[in-house]
Amino acid sequence: MTDEHYMQHALKEAQRAFDEDEVPVGAVIVMNERIIARGYNQVEKLTDSTAHAEIITLTAAFNFLGSKYLPEATLYVTVQPCLMCSGALYWSKIGRIVYGAEDEKNGYKKVAGTTSPFHPKTLIAEGILKDECAQLMKDFFKARR
After folding, report:
1. What are the angstrom distances between the C-alpha of 119 and each of 6, 10, 96?
2. For residues 3 and 26, what is the distance between their CA atoms, to the nearest angstrom?
3. What predicted TM-score, i.e. pTM, was given to this entire model?
4. pLDDT digits (tens, 9 = 90+) for 7-30
5. In angstroms, rounded to a whole number, what is the distance separating the alpha carbons of residues 122 and 119?
6. Quick check: 76 and 10 in contact, CB under 8 A?
7. Active-site positions?
């Protein structure tokens, strides 16, 4: 399976968020070519500012595996993680992070700059289906203006 294939699954989760009037960010975690966890932003639904797609997906993966570390897993997320999510990803020791669209306003790069906030062994891939991921965000915020 390709990064694009799994990012399509993350986009489906982002669409769920969009349909529920949540900021449309979706994520899946993959191990051994199998999706073991999925999630989408639920900040409004849960009245919880930490209910980001990455956090929900990490929690689901930890519960599924019965482990607090994910060194063999890959997170696919439609938008660059924020600093909060980056911290959670750091502590998970996730093996790889793949994201679609940049988040110039709230993404980790705004605060961290060129310094990676992730575990030193974590690999990063960016820009996978970035146009599709960015368009969903643009459509969401355009509808609210």
Report:
1. 22, 22, 10
2. 15
3. 0.95
4. 999 999 999 999 999 999 999 999
5. 5
6. yes
7. 54
